[in-house]
Design goal:
The chain is mainly alpha-helical. It contains three helices and two strands. A two-stranded antiparallel sheet has the order 1-2. A hairpin with a 4-residue loop joins strand 1 and strand 2.
Length: about 80
Amino acid sequence: PNADKLRRQLKSLPYYIERAATLVANGDTPFTLDAQNGTWLEKQKPTPPDVNVQANELFYQTYAKVGLIVPVILNGYDQV
């Protein structure tokens, strides 16, 4: 509703993006991060995991937070 407030918030957005990226890159994870293209370097399974919709919904209802890194599955090569 307030255009000036929105401008101020958007002005500080790069700081928060950089901070989040730094925390992800320097976090304790079992994967190696390729900083050049922002992907995790880890051997991939040849087929995607089975999708359990109810378990996924329960997980995100319990643990969803702003900034949560969410995995995405593409089942076809032509998907964007």
